[in-house]
Amino acid sequence: MFDSLSGRLTGVFDRLRQRGTLGEADVTEALREVRLAMLDADVALPVVKDFTAKVRERALGAEVLSAISPGQQVAKIVNDVLVEQLGGAGAVPLNLAATAPVPVLMVGLQGSGKTTTSGKIALRLASRERKKVLLASLDTQRPAAQLQLAQLAERAKVASLPIVAGQTPTQIAERAMETGRREGYDVVILDTAGRLSIDAALMDEVRAIRDITRPAETLLVVDAMTGQDAVQTARAFNEAVGVTGIVMTRMDGDSRGGAALSMRQVTGAPIKLTGSGEKLEALEEFHPERIAGRILG
Ligand code: GDP
């Protein structure tokens, strides 16, 4: 991972004479390699430019350390800045610090893995944190959606809101919160309807649900495999409803994960969790340093 970029940078510096500090020409040449690696990993061009400018600033004039080569030193700066931009070394936990039942709103496009992720989060909260979780599907668009969530709830051994035919998404949201209060749930996970593309009706609906439930977390679920499209999705949802955290699914695929960096920049919201498979257990905390390694290739 980071070794291979380090190798490429060392190659660059082997061709240059070592001086007391990292010179402008050295850094420029090294950053050309970094730019290629990042574009390869599907990081958006403006984000790459912004990123390389930060690395340049830090690298220029940095004392050359005798223990490592200048190439390794730039590679380390690149890695450090990337980890910082991805949100620092640690994973950001879900924020459930609100009066119970704490509403968690799941948003995203259809097929992003939203329903599966709702089930995964429910399982995690119930099994690791002993929370009493209620899953509620507000998807009245797809006939099977509410049933799919009920089946996931069964697999996760958590409760799901009984299905009542004919209710609108906002009516279901109200009923979910009422049930949550009445039956003493800690967390209510609200799985909203997705669409194949972003449209005004979807955003209006999500906004209405948000206003009714006032979620502690609004988690955007995006498919890592969709690359730059995922970034557009993130921008649209963030502008329309305000995203507090991102879950990137399909990290088990072969995407390099560059969208993670762009999404973080575009929304300002941390990536909190990643999905790495179809099983309910396949949910992990987001580790910036792992993604940094993957992006650098
Ligand atoms: P939704 O339309 O956004 O609710 O998407 P679903 O939750 O129904 O997921 C769509 C498909 O993606 C299903 O077949 C899931 O099993 C699959 N899926 C969800 N998350 C992941 C993941 O992290 N990795 C993989 N490989 N598949 C996933």
Task: Characterise this structure.
Residues 270-283 form the SRP54-type proteins GTP-binding domain. Part of the signal recognition particle protein translocation system, which is composed of SRP and FtsY. SRP is a ribonucleoprotein composed of Ffh and a 4.5S RNA molecule. With 297 residues, the chain is of the alpha/beta class. Helix content is 51%, strand content 13%. The protein is built from eleven helices and eight strands. Helix 2 (24-40) runs antiparallel to helix 3 (45-59) and helix 7 packs parallel to helix 8. The model has no long low-confidence stretch (mean pLDDT 88). Residues 108, 110-116, 194, 249-250, 252, 275-278, 282 line the site of guanosine-5'-diphosphate (GDP).
End-to-end gap: 5 Å
* Morphology: elongated
Structure ligands: guanosine-5'-diphosphate
Helix content: 40-55%
- In DSSP terms (H or I, runs of 4 or more residues), the helix count works out at 11
What would the average pLDDT be, to the nearest integer?
Answer: 88
Flag low-confidence runs.
Answer: none
Strand content: 5-15%
Our Rg estimate from Cα atoms comes to 22 Å
Spell out the helices and strands N to C: HHHHEHEHEHEHEHEHEEH
Strand order of the largest sheet: 3-2-4-1-5-6-7-8
Beta strand count = 8
Query: Describe the biggest sheet?
Result: 8 strands, mixed
Content-based structural category: alpha/beta
GO molecular function: 7S RNA binding; GTP binding; GTPase activity
Protein name: Signal recognition particle protein
Catalytic activity: GTP + H2O = GDP + phosphate + H(+)
EC number: 3.6.5.4
